[in-house]
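can u do me a favor
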């Protein structure tokens, strides 16, 4: 992205690279005098700047910045969110089964959220009490919740929401 601080205009050419030009009038003066423009290039740290995308048929890791944009982009598709922690034994046991579910349902979006300190605001907003917790969303609203490593309950909840 090329950004000038005068007009705050942004031109996106490559989402993974940010070019910061600084003060636009100085850039024009330097250009008129034949001087180098001196752009700084840095990697983009804004995860939401790169299009937040979830693919059907695989589990997509989300965070504070990407969760709601993906859910909103899903529209009326069913979205299943696995809220887990790295240290949770039942979470680890459910991970391969959750991956298999994502490959089974081609009309459902499967997401996972590491409930660590970085994602604490989203975890709090979603009302996590135990891990693993699976939130099922439709039209950007939580419609079902399954707590614990209960695959049969999760499958039944997904089927129920898909058919509604």
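np, heres the sequence
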């Amino acid at each position: 992205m090329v950004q000038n601080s005068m007009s705050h205009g942004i031109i996106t050419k490559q989402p993974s690279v940010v070019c910061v030009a600084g003060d636009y009038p100085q850039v024009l003066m330097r250009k008129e005098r034949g001087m180098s423009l001196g752009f700084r290039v840095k990697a983009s740290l804004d995860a939401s700047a790169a299009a937040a995308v979830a693919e059907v048929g695989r589990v997509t890791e989300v965070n504070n910045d990407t969760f709601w944009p993906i859910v909103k982009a899903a529209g009326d598709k069913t979205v299943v969110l696995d809220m887990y922690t790295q240290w949770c034994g039942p979470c680890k046991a459910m991970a391969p089964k959750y991956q298999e579910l994502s490959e089974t349902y081609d009309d459902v979006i499967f997401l996972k959220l590491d409930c660590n300190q970085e994602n604490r605001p989203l975890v709090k907003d979603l009302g996590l009490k135990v891990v693993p917790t699976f939130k099922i969303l439709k039209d950007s609203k939580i419609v079902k919740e399954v707590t614990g490593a209960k695959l049969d309950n999760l499958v039944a909840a997904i089927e129920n929401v898909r058919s509604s």
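The chain has a mean pLDDT of 78. hope that helps!!
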